[in-house]
Design brief:
The complex is a heterodimer of chains A (431) and B (473). Chain A is built from 14 helices and 8 strands. By secondary structure, chain A is α+β, with helices and mostly antiparallel strands. Among the domains of chain A are: 198 residues, Orthogonal Bundle (MetI-like fold), CATH 1.10.3720.10; 34 residues, no CATH class; 62 residues. In chain A, the strands form 3 sheets. Chain A has a 4-stranded antiparallel sheet. A two-stranded antiparallel ribbon of chain A has the order 4-5. Chain B folds into 3 domains: 251 residues, MetI-like (MetI-like fold), CATH 1.10.3720.10; 46 residues; 83 residues, no CATH class. The chains are: A alpha+beta (431), B mainly alpha (473). At the A-B interface, helix 2, helix 4, helix 5, helix 12 and helix 13 of A face helix 3, helix 9, helix 11, helix 12 and helix 16 of B.
Amino acid sequence: MSDARLSGPPPAPSRRWSWTDPKLRSSVIQIVLALILIWLAWSFYANAQSNLTRLGIASGFGFLDNRAGFAISQTLIPYNENMSYGRAFMVGLLNTLLVAFLGIVLATIIGFLMGVARLSKNVVIKALASAYVEITRNLPPLFQILFWYLAVLSTLPGPRQSWGFGIQPVLGAIGSGLSGIGLGFLGGPLSAFAASLAAPSVFVNNRGLVVPRPIFEDGSMAILYALIVAVVASIAIGLWAKKRREATGKPFPVFWTGLALVILLPLAASAAAGFPVTVEKPELRGFNFVGGLRVIPEFVSLLLALSIYTGGFIAEIVRSGIMAVSKGQTEAAHSLGLRTGPTLRLVVIPQAMRVIVPPLTSQYLNLTKNSSLGVAVGYPDLFAVFAGSTLNQTGQAIEIIAVTMAVYLTISIVTSTIMGWYNKRVALVER
Amino acid sequence: MTDTTASLPPGRSAPVKPFVSASLREPEPAPVSTRGPVRWVRAHLVGSVPQVLLTLFGIWLVYATVPPLIKFFIVDAVWTGTSRDACLAEKLGRPVGACWPFVWAKLDQLIYGFYPAAERWRVNVVYWLGALLLLPLLIQKLPYKRLNAIAFFGVFPVAAFVLLTGGDLDLQRFLLGNLGFGALFPAPAAKSGLSIAFWLDFVASTVLVTAIVYGISRFLSGAEGARSAAKTTLTVFAVLAVVLFVVDVPLGLPQVETRLWGGLLVTLVIAVTGITVSLPFGILLALGRRSSLPLVKAASIIFIEFWRGVPLITVLFFATYMLPLFLPGRFTIDGLLRALVGVALFASAYMAEVVRGGLQAIPKGQYEGAMAVGLRPSLMMRLVVLPQALKLVIPGIVNNFIGLFKDTTLVLIVSIFDLLGAMRAAFTDPNWASPTTLFTGFGFAGIVYFVFCFGMSRYSMALEKRLDRAQRH
């Protein structure tokens, strides 16, 4: 039984070109895709050229050197309307970074607190934390920003009726309260004592938060240097303590030493330089405050909304991260004699961080991206200054929106790279 | 014993002596019961001093927030009235809480925007149709899921489009006409109704495209493959013909421009369009990202990561101000449509990542099994991998939808009035300016958003639990 088909050479393919040939198919698909992409890019380019000519819009980045001509309500670097669009861009970028950074710090604190509270044995605390998480996560961030701005901050009293914060009004209020309920012998002296104190220096009104402004005179740099030295020394002590603990098992109070260094060293430097930092207190003159540092309500509402909204999401991430650490770990730590605090700090949280870090990164990125919503209340962030005012005045939509997107993309990529590096450090090393 | 001591680390000095008990130990008493109300209170409320303080703090917080809210929104609230006078404390002579008449007066505007009052029944029909088609889709036990999905994701959008806009698009040119062969179909342009030129163009384009597809696939994979390819092409064109006919045929409904739309209508239109469009594109992008073809993979990754890396508002600005510059000058795109394009691009990128998660969760054995029974890659995806992967990611899709629903508020920055935008516009009405109007409005909008988002998130959680159980077998 010899079958020619089995014994002979394999039959030659009947067709040179076959769609079932994976190599050919993949090249055809990729060539078609490349052609489509090239055609799209070319037609976008050609259309943009003809549209720009037709509408008389300039192109290129020359506009960045032109005079901006608009004022910005919050500037971290010196700026006035005679400066260029490029300068305005930098002001906006710094404002975005400021609100994003503070928002991330606040949201992390809120999130960790609420996440731990949701796991509390105490049912009241647990229910409150759950209510917080459900309410904040299910209301749109823009809704929350507008709520804080329109419904809360703009209904505060005007500058002349500002709420003052300081020890004096609190004591004064307690004093008059005591007098009111018939304890005049206690309340009278308290009120008198309060009146002898300095007037409040922190004010809240519908134009924002007014706080004293520090003024750095000659010799202030010594304090900064002292602070840097203290931080470096704390890190060095931490490394040394870790080495010693691994070698001998003896613990060292790194946290308290570091804290003492960071507080005392700059204080000592300040004393040595003759206290070069003075404080300029805000004063009510006419209808508004003069002096001091004013935090605009747009910033406050944006920061509040972003950190409260993102804090709700971080709470859920923290909760699921802690729950992902098996109960045996806690029990083993307890049976080794660790108390609740060290168990959390040394056993549970390091393991939970592995689960927490990746989603935490995307929440940080979301917060940074959501900071662009400040435009709805007029917070002068990158988006409002550049894609808002600058786009309105120059009309160069392509360049401006491309640059704005590029900046946010860069922030995203840098943040995720940093967090990726951190994640690699805490990730489980598998054999 | 000495060598053991020597090998110990420097910190430990003496070795521990083994201890063996000489006698049996007394049995320990039974653990203290944790049942019963008293024990429960002790364990959950007042176990220790910090516990007591926490409990007191929590109770104080509840006391400080809940009764004032109830007082404001219910007890002190004003329920009827025709203008701001009804909500002023000095006119009423009592403390005034929420000003509900303000919401009643603006309710139409919040639900329909400025949609003409005579045509609002069309919006209502769309709402009801959507709800009737969506509910059975969400209830797992009901049958005909496939038909239902086609009805909701395929038929409903077309019907809603015709009802909401009025249809009757006056289509004039199809493929050939737009490619510069318009002169071939010289029929007089119809002002209203079906244009003969368009449909002649459509038939000619269909024949031409099918012929090209047939020719290429005949060259590549023989007569049989060519026939099936031609059949697929014809089916696509037939479906397209039905859709185009429905949006083109004059039904006698008055046209309603999209700038009159507003409120909840816009919120739902954007969210539902976003999710419907992003589903197919997201699946394609997710498959592209896992493709072995380098160019396809790179293009998908760049597309996905680009849109995910920028804020939605820049995407909306891109669609509103930049996209029109990229299109031929004769196209003028409707404002709402521009926002929809932006939302669709954005949502597709996020959907792609959700679907990719599902694709990665399918064990390799499924792929290998499908290949072993001789399925082509396309069939393997369609029959084996995607059905399992999509089922896994339904909770993710619902979560995506919640995000999109919240993100629709952003369109108010490009001057489209969604629910929040309509509410903000209503605040500026001097006829209703009262000290409590703002809180009432935010309270109402907040309740609407919360009910939608919370309901959906609960649904997605229930679904996840169900899927978990199904996975474990």
